[in-house]
Design goal:
The protein folds into two domains: 1-38, no CATH class; 49-294, Rossmann fold (3-Layer(aba) Sandwich), CATH 3.40.50. It is built from 14 helices and seven strands. It has helices at residues 2-15, 22-38, 41-46, 50-53, 56-59, 61-67, 87-94, 118-124, 127-135, 171-176, 178-181, 183-194, 226-235, 274-283; strands at residues 75-79, 99-104, 145-150, 162-168, 195-206, 239-244, 288-294. The N and C termini lie far apart (46 Å).
Length: 297
């Protein structure tokens, strides 16, 4: 039936003396339909490896991406893309018309981490070129183009180019070391500057309960309070839009002595204690707050 309608439409166009080639136009539309299906978010997520899909129950990538309004063809900034858990989904989903920009910690921030050896820090100096080159293998045949910058050193030509800035579990260390170099302030300033007016700033962050102390929730344990995040974003110029519980995990109830890295996937405190490890695996990944902000127009 659809084919008959398409032929009828072609006949009408030819009869009206249209100068374009209607047969070619119909063929192009029919060819584009399967590509759109292949590029759908659900199909991209279904194509990921099993070990990655096993974490969907905690990270809820489809719901998160939809909540922030991320769509094919957009320019998106991903904070701390690292080994590409979200990047591997975003590149094919954004598609050939899209662009993904990775953003990493400032060079001055790395010495604050105990794991950051001189060799590691030296390697970070070329991250802006190394990471996009490595991420090329995740693009597939029609994925988004890729570039990168360092927080506090965003190229001027990137200003006002992004539709969405996405910070999945990015803020805690920036807050933790804010007093050593203004790292949180600089990262939020870049997030604001890179967005188009009306653009979205999306945050997913390990969530500290309101009754917990500010000392616990300063980022050093991995958790931050909702009020702190909203105040920091509003101080940077953003408007708070909405909150979602899509990444909440009520089973994560830390004490003030706990760190978020005790939980999967790190399991950093139970390596020699099988019973504790099993207990923490049963909790699952951290309780996370999901917040949407907007850059005013």
């Amino acid at each position: 039936m659809k084919k008959s309608l398409a032929i009828f439409a072609v006949a009408l166009l030819v009869g009206c003396g249209q100068s374009a080639d209607p047969v070619a136009e119909v063929a192009e539309e029919e060819a584009a339909a399967p590509a759109a299906v292949e590029n759908s978010l659900a199909s991209v997520l279904a194509a990921q490896p099993e070990d990655m899909q096993a974490r969907y129950q905690y990270r809820h990538p489809q719901e998160t991406i939809e909540f922030f309004g991320i769509e094919p063809g957009m320019t998106l900034v991903e904070g701390l893309p690292g080994r590409g858990w979200y990047t591997k989904v975003l590149l094919p989903y954004l598609g050939a018309e899209g662009h993904l920009i990775g953003a990493n910690y400032a060079m001055d921030m790395w010495p604050n981490f105990s794991f950051a050896t001189e060799e590691f820090i030296e390697k970070q100096k070329t991250w802006v070129t190394d990471w996009p080159a490595g991420a090329e293998e995740w693009r597939g045949d029609a994925g988004a183009t890729i570039s990168a910058f360092i927080f506090g050193s965003m190229p001027a030509d990137m200003a006002g180019t992004a539709d969405v800035v996405f910070f999945p579990r990015v803020l805690h260390n920036l807050a933790r070391f804010e007093s050593q170099g203004g790292f949180l302030t600089a990262a939020l300033a870049d997030a604001y500057a890179v967005l188009k007016p009306g653009g979205t700033f999306g945050v997913v962050q390990h969530h500290a309960r309101d009754e917990m102390s500010d000392e616990f929730a300063d980022g050093s344990h991995g958790y931050l309070k909702k009020g702190f995040i909203i105040a920091a974003a509003e101080n940077a110029g953003f408007e708070f839009v909405a909150e979602s519980d899509i990444n909440a995990n009520p089973a994560d109830q830390p004490t003030e002595e706990d760190i978020v890295w005790r939980l999967p996937p790190s399991l950093g405190t139970s390596g020699d204690n099988p019973e504790l490890r099993a207990e923490l695996e049963a909790v699952g990944e951290s309780n996370r707050i999901t917040l949407k902000f907007r850059k005013p127009e």
